[in-house]
Specification:
By secondary structure, this protein is mainly α. It has 3 domains: about 180 residues, MFS general substrate transporter like domains (Growth Hormone, Chain: A), CATH 1.20.1250.20; about 60 residues; about 220 residues, MFS general substrate transporter like domains (Growth Hormone, Chain: A, Up-down Bundle). The chain has 19 helices and no strands. The longest helix has about 40 residues.
Length: about 500
């Protein structure tokens, strides 16, 4: 069965319907939460205090979700798919309930760590199950549907959070998760296959996880280190030069720790990443760079576009949020529209998508002050269209061309690599903005310089992704040609054997 002969309805036939609903529901819980929390944070601070830790609710959740995603493969190997999925759901439930009951910011931050770990674990296991449960002919369809979940979350998340905030019940934004998670967990327990690996790893990779955790934490606090240091009484103030030095050192430390994690992982058991995860010589390595750089692309936009819209264009926060969400909506639309493509058409979509990302981000960088306000979400949407056209097909091809025996590991590592791109992208954007003169005063001139610098330098990310995408499609084409030759040779041998 080829991609051309299957429709969207096939995702709900032959026993796949429940899995399709479960996967999208699990990813949807994580996605909606991301958009809800940013909307209700002002209400949370007014109620329980902790304004100095405002950004930590998102940063700690992100750090924990990266670690949770990285543990997906070892958890699945040790406990089996069903138990690991339920564990992730239970942690997400515990985190959500704890957030709803939090009497102080410190408790809320701890709860966000638990919630983020559970969400990351669910995302990683979901990608692994896509590789295991769905035939190749349906993978682009299910990945397109998963992408639509993020688009829906971008639309309803701010509305749900805003509604709870408006009625003075921010805790409801977390309570609303509880019945959904309980139903999701029950469905996973009774219907997911066990799928425990035949050879269970002897030891969990604690050392590598600790090293990766420290690296992610370093990059997570890089853009907000000064506030943390002042709160802890380490410093009373710091100059811009000192800030840049510390931020650079934190990012460098993070790079070294992640690199060391990959080096140890290559020689260890119970792997977190597939073989040669960032080598441009392999399809998996080239794809990893595309995922990483694509995540940096949309992160530099997501971090500073709302600020630019509010300060430079006078847009209110809620409208700015929805204008920024045009990227996610267009990403979904492009994924759904191109899911039927395969072969050369899919490779063309990958390259065209990256070209759109370069064009859209470059236009945003140099036109953010010059173009009318309504053009800004259109350019943002162009980047989303590019990401939707490209990432879906890169993901499907990465799963298809994964190294033998590493198919599930490769699939489960994709969310981790994407999240690493988000973390490094946010940190780099913060360093660039501070270096360009952005201050807490948020003066229009300072914001203009900072946004131009962040988006202008940020264009290097989609340019790099385009170069690696060209490399990736070339490797995929070569792999396909080799497979075709092997198939013809095998067919010739079979024919010769039948003749004799």
């Amino acid at each position: 069965m080829t991609d051309q002969k299957v429709g969207w309805g096939a995702l709900f036939r032959d026993g796949l319907g429940l899995y399709t609903i479960m996967l999208n529901l699990g990813i949807g819980l994580h996605a909606v939460d991301v958009f809800i929390v940013t909307t209700v944070m002002p209400s949370i601070v007014r109620d329980i205090g902790g304004a100095s830790y405002y950004s930590w609710t998102t940063m700690l959740y992100m750090v924990a979700s990266i670690i949770g995603a990285a543990t997906g493969s070892p958890m699945k190997a040790k406990f089996g798919a069903r138990r690991a999925y339920c564990l992730g759901s239970l942690l997400f439930l515990m985190g959500s309930v704890s957030c709803a009951l939090s009497p102080a910011m410190a408790i809320l931050l701890g709860a966000r760590l638990v919630q983020g770990f559970g969400g990351g674990l669910i995302i990683s296991l979901s990608m692994a199950l896509v590789s295991e449960l769905y035939p190749e002919s349906l993978r682009k369809r299910i990945l397109g549907l998963v992408s639509s979940t993020w688009g829906v979350a971008a639309l309803i998340g701010p509305a749900v959070g805003g509604t709870f905030a408006q009625y003075g019940f921010w805790r409801g934004a977390f309570w609303i998760n509880a019945p959904i998670i309980i139903g999701f967990m029950a469905a996973a327990w009774f219907h997911l296959p066990e799928r425990r690996d035949a050879a269970t790893p002897r030891a969990f990779p604690w050392r590598r996880m600790a090293l990766l955790s420290l690296g992610v934490l370093c990059v997570g606090i890089a853009s907000d280190w000064k506030a943390l240091a002042i709160q802890l009484g380490v410093i009373s103030s710091a100059s811009e030069i000192e800030s840049l030095i510390v931020q650079g050192a934190l990012i460098l430390a993070a790079v070294l720790m992640v690199w060391q994690t990959l080096r140890l992982d290559a020689a260890g058991t119970s792997k977190l990443f597939p073989s040669h995860p960032f080598s441009p010589a392999t399809t998996t390595g080239a794809a990893s760079w595309v995922f990483f750089l694509s995540s940096m692309t949309h992160t530099v936009i997501g971090v500073f576009l709302p600020l630019a819209l509010q300060v430079l264009h006078g847009v209110d926060p809620l409208t700015a949020g929805y204008m920024t969400a045009s990227l996610a909506v267009c990403w979904t639309a492009a994924s759904m529209a191109t899911a039927h493509l395969h072969g050369r058409a899919a490779s063309a979509a990958i390259i065209a998508g990256q070209l759109m990302c370069v064009t859209g981000l470059a236009a945003l960088a140099f036109g953010i002050e010059r173009v009318p306000t309504f053009v800004v979400p259109m350019l943002n949407g162009l980047v989303g269209l590019g990401l939707g056209c490209s990432n879906l097909h890169v993901t499907a091809a990465t799963m298809r061309h994964a190294r033998s025996g590493e198919e599930t590991l490769t699939a489960s590592s994709i969310p981790t690599i994407r999240s690493l791109g988000i973390a490094f992208g946010a940190a780099a954007a913060g360093v660039i903005a501070n270096g360009a003169g952005l201050t807490d005063a948020l003066l229009p001139e300072d914001v203009s310089h900072a946004v131009l610098a962040v988006l202008g330098i940020g264009v290097l990310a989609p340019v790099g992704a385009l170069i690696l995408a060209l490399r990736f499609t070339a490797l995929v084409a070569a792999s396909g040609a080799t497979t075709a030759i092997q198939d013809r040779a095998r067919s010739a041998r079979d024919s010769a054997g039948a003749t004799h």
